[in-house]
Amino acid sequence: MSKLSPQDHAGFVRWMREASPYLRAHRGQTFVVYLGGDLVAGPTFQHVVQDLSLLTGIGVKLVVVHGARPQVEDRLAAAGIATRMAGDLRVTDSAALGEVKQAVAAVRFTIEAQFAHATGQRQPGGGAIRILGGNFVVARPAGVIGGIDLQFTGELRRIDIAGLRAQLEHADLVLLSPLGYSPTGELFSLNALELATAVAGELAAGKLVLFTPTPEIRDRSGRALRQLTPPEIRATEIAEGGPPAPVLAAALRACKLGVGRVHLVSSVDDGSLLLELFTRDGVGTMFSDAPFDQLRRATIDDVGGILDLIEPLEASGVLVKRSREKLEIEIDHFTVMVRDGLTVACGAVYPYPSDGMSELACIAVHPDYRSAGFGALLIAALERRAAEAGVNSVFVLTTQATHWFQEHGYVKQGLESLPMGRQALYNYQRNSLVLSKTLAR
Ligand SMILES: CC(C)(COP(=O)(O)OP(=O)(O)OC[C@H]1O[C@@H](n2cnc3c(N)ncnc32)[C@H](O)[C@@H]1OP(=O)(O)O)[C@@H](O)C(=O)NCCC(=O)NCCS
């Protein structure tokens, strides 16, 4: 018998419906996931593995790159090996390399065992997820920095991407450890975050997921910034307490390398990965070269989304009813704002060129996205569109949003201010107020 309450049922059904477009969108994509050694040692590890198993279950091609920094530090301390640094880089001598190999191997086995456990539990009669790995990463010595020889600390030289791709066809998951092999047969310690970023770039992965304890980025006013493009992040003064600098640098670098989206996801809050990947607004921080919200002219493919947005407002009398046919004919007048496939705002511009005016109409923002500034962005875009068409002023007819328009510089007018053609269509029963604004040139 189900242990879920009726409220849980309703929540589950709503969540599944919201998640279903993402199930389709993620299938067949390649995701690269960075798991730090701290996560592997932490309380959320078991659930993160379950959630990654779910991704493989829906057909995501997964490459997991793990780190082992705290485990290496523990082993070095236990062995009494003092850590020497050259700038930000740790010197790995042959004694330290022995400890690194042991720590990395232990973390790798822990991850493999946890996947066996998670999937064995989930798939009645089914086998565990098949994990492959291998010598796909070629490294070279990082060399001598500031007079200090870094010895077995390496840097990435090449990744056997064809080999990695072939493995992804045969396995559920490829697990990469932060070690690289040199053509001379030596082994080098690598930075796992840099490895994950490079692998994601070379695979042209759809997503790079970076787990970090503090994924949230806030600007100086305390506003959380959930979706950012690299120019936006460079233009923003970020408050302290956000992601560590190397994580932020890795995210920006991955965007530059052409990774579709980079997600910073909490390594400490349970369920963050699923919430980030299967809900429209996510819970972490997402970087993408392409803006997340598109504000653009509507096309015929937007008719369905606009109807979904405006029909409830038409039913309650806030907006005038438009049939699908009318909307299809007038679609070129519309501007839409789309977030991850959902039409979150729309509005139309109807020019009266001989009167030097345009009407702004059918302005709506999805109820879940109100009071977030989308209305202000939309109206600015509509005014720009009107100005580009060469008119001097815009007007609106509204029954419910008078104050909102006034706050955007609109002024109440009499009916006689409208173009004659629009006066003839005025609906006296609706008794809308007329407001207008002169456009800045
Ligand atoms: C009017 C509307 C487009 C505003 O969109 P939005 O994205 O919420 O707007 P913004 O985020 O830019 O502005 C929000 C501010 O405007 C205020 N506001 C929103 N609707 C308002 C209204 N009808 N009257 C007065 N103020 C309003 C909010 O309270 C908020 O103020 P606050 O920040 O001080 O809390 C949206 O509320 C909507 O779709 N309403 C239903 C359709 C409608 O009335 N359209 C206009 C007729 S053409």
Keywords:
8-stranded mixed sheet; single chain; 2 domains; elongated; 15 helices; Aminopeptidase
Overall description:
It contains 15 helices and 25 strands. The protein is α/β, with parallel strands linked by helices. The protein has two domains: 6-287, Carbamate kinase; 293-438, Gcn5-related N-acetyltransferase (GNAT) (Aminopeptidase, 3-Layer(aba) Sandwich), CATH 3.40.630. Strands 5-10-2-1-13-17-18-16 form an eight-stranded mixed beta sheet, with helices on both faces. Strands 19-20-21-22-23-25-24 form a seven-stranded mixed beta sheet. The chain is elongated. Residues 313, 318, 363-365, 370-376, 396, 398, 400-401, 403-404 line the site of coenzyme A. Coenzyme A is lined by residues 313, 318, 363-365, 370-376, 396, 398, 400-401, 403-404.
Short description:
Helix content is 39%, strand content 25%. The chain has 441 residues and is of the alpha/beta class. Strand 11 (179-181) and strand 12 (187-189) form a beta hairpin.
Level of helix content? Answer: 25-40%
Write the CATH homologous superfamily of the largest domain.
Answer: Acetylglutamate kinase-like
> What is the end-to-end distance?
68 Å
CATH architecture of the largest domain: 3-Layer(aba) Sandwich
Overall average pLDDT: 92
**Overall number of strands:** 25
What ligand molecules are bound, each kind once?
coenzyme A
- Under CATH, the topology of the largest domain can be stated as Carbamate kinase
Specify the overall morphology: elongated
Strand residues, percent: 15-25%
Number of helices: 15
Widest sheet: strand ordering:
5-10-2-1-13-17-18-16
So what's the oligomer here? single chain
Main β-sheet: number of strands, strand sense, barrel status? 8 strands, mixed
Query: Regarding CATH, which class of the largest domain?
Result: Alpha Beta
Q: What does the radius of gyration come to?
A: 28 Å
Number of domains: 2
**Structure classification:** alpha/beta
Spans with pLDDT under 50 lasting ≥5 residues?
A: none
